[in-house]
Amino acid sequence: MALQWMILTYVVAAEAVIALLLTLPSPKYIKSTIVSLVSLILQPALFIIPFAGFQLLDIYWKNEHRLMCTSEICTAAERDRFEKSIYKAQRNVILCAASILLYWSVYRICKYHKEIQSLEQVEKRYKDQ
Asked: What protein family does this chain belong to (predicted)?
């Protein structure tokens, strides 16, 4: 069960590193190379959106069908276990949201960079005329 969250954690870490690489100032040639490589990776990496969405649905379903431990019948250990599961679910929701948000951010950064490149090419053609 924890494997899916480890995968999602590694994907979020990789997306964060890629977003950092894309936003760091660098020479034009290196930046365009990085953007072209990341653009090639973006389409296969789209699997993260439905994967995170499915995980969010799983968390919601488990939350709706979780046994509540709020009465006086619960022992301290049961109450601790219940609170720990709530904290884990909250952490996992943040992880899913971060993966979707970081994917979208990387996508938009690459798209903006490509638009800037195309506008620079148009400007260069007008200057050459």
From this structure: Belongs to the BCAP29/BCAP31 family.
Long-range CB pairs of 83-91, under 8 A, 24+ apart, other chains included: 89/59, 89/62, 89/63
CA–CA distance, 58 with 64 (Å, rounded to integer): 10
At residue 1, the pLDDT reads 59
Residue linked to tokens 């960079």? 113
Task: Report which secondary-structure segment, H or E, holds 54.
Answer: helix 48-64
* pLDDT average per 10 residues of sequence, the chain (129 residues): 87 94 92 92 90 91 78 79 87 94 95 94 90
Rounded to whole angstroms, the Cα distance separating 13 from 54 reads 19
Burial-class residue 11 by CB neighbours within 10 Å (0-12, 13-18, 19+). buried
- Its pTM stands at 0.84
